[in-house]
Amino acid sequence: MWKQAIEDAVAKTQRNMSVHGMTFPHIDNDQRYAWGENNDWIEGFYTGMLWLCYRYTGDDAFKKAAMEQGSDYRRRLDNDIALEHHDIGFLYMPSAFAQWRLTGDESAKRLALDAADKLLGRWRPKGNYIQAWGPAGDEKNGGRIIIDCLMNLPLLYWASETTGEAKYKDIACIHAEQSLRYLVRGDDSSYHTFYFDQESGIPVGGGTHQGYHDGSTWTRGQAWGVYGFALSYRYTRDPRFLEASRRLARYFIAHLPKDHVAYWDFDAPIEAGTPRDSSASAITACGLLELIEHLEEGDAERAYFQEHARRMMESLVKHYATIGDETAEGLIRHGSYSVRTGNAPDSYMIWGDYYYLEALMRMEQGFAGFWYESE
């Protein structure tokens, strides 16, 4: 099953690459991608898919296309194009870091390190956090962190390992600790966002930008937490992060519908037409497979998490994947971007496609994507 699904994903990615050239997929409301420039937070996932396909096939066409895109990431960083946000890791780990990891290209390594410096510039020492969106002092977002940022921290952890400079890891650790303290609730659910007073650093309270309401649990946010805390554990070996990943994973699994593919928010009313978020289940499957790697063979939950990762992926492959549909640009249907604002509540999500392919390659080959250096 996994091999067939990977080969279908490779064929679709190859077709997109041939048809759309150097353009990147942007989210669209109409069961398709809107292809355009590298100017959002999501482009790294597409370049990462090219590198995953190259890793799987050895086909130099994927390598050539991904490396051509790599020059655009250098242009974007040097000109500071639409980078006033924390998603630098999402952009540069699956692109520049992946290029260096798979080819040994030193210029790509340098680009990834420069991107880490850019992310480091979002550190706000008064509150000990990495600001999610907007410039320093931004009236609306200056004191805001979001759970998604956990997935950008590997760029900083790796930069510390690579340069020997502790500042990258120190800041990543402190931000992860703040995320654990303020974004993870006592019942193992999570806030999407949390606010601090910009001047004093005093914590203000949790909220949401994407979820059903401020106190609800946005499923993709919970997914970022499952995977992000597991990656923080990989880099730090801090048992608090491993336990956080476990807690969020238990909650995610316990609140899934029968087919193991999440609705967009765990607290949203389930009615006819309530949007799913297939990307949340794809991300969580990757997170569970990462978490399992850090659990002892005799750990009672290891088999439990393994089984639920398998169920999520089986459901995605059998009921959500576009296998056999030669007109489809995306790999899995029924992802949601922002149901709250009506922005693509039911369409293809390029991060959903990326994590779906990553999870398949974890299942089939044990290859875990581009969030750390060694396999």
How would you characterize the overall build of this protein?
The protein has 375 residues and is mainly α. It has one domain (2-365): Glycosyltransferase. It is 53% helix and 6% strand. The strands form three sheets. A three-stranded antiparallel β-sheet has the order 5-6-7, covered by helices on one side. Strands 1-2 form a two-stranded antiparallel sheet. A hairpin with a 4-residue loop joins strand 3 (123-124) and strand 4 (129-130). The longest helix is centred in the N-terminal third of the chain and has 19 residues, at 2-20. The radius of gyration is 19 Å and the shape is globular.
Topology at a glance:
Elements: H1 2-20, E1 24-27, E2 33-36, H2 43-57, H3 60-78, H4 88-103, H5 106-120, E3 123-124, E4 129-130, E5 144-146, H6 153-163, H7 166-183, E6 193-196, E7 203-207, H8 219-236, H9 239-254, H10 278-293, H11 302-320, H12 350-365
Antiparallel strand pairs: 1-2, 3-4, 5-6, 6-7
Low-pLDDT runs? none
Structural class: mainly alpha
CATH class: Mainly Alpha
Radius of gyration: 19 Å
CATH topology: Glycosyltransferase
Report a brief summary of the structure:
With 375 residues, the protein is mainly alpha-helical. It is 53% helix and 6% strand. The strands form 3 sheets. It has a 3-stranded antiparallel sheet with strand order 5-6-7, covered by helices on one side.
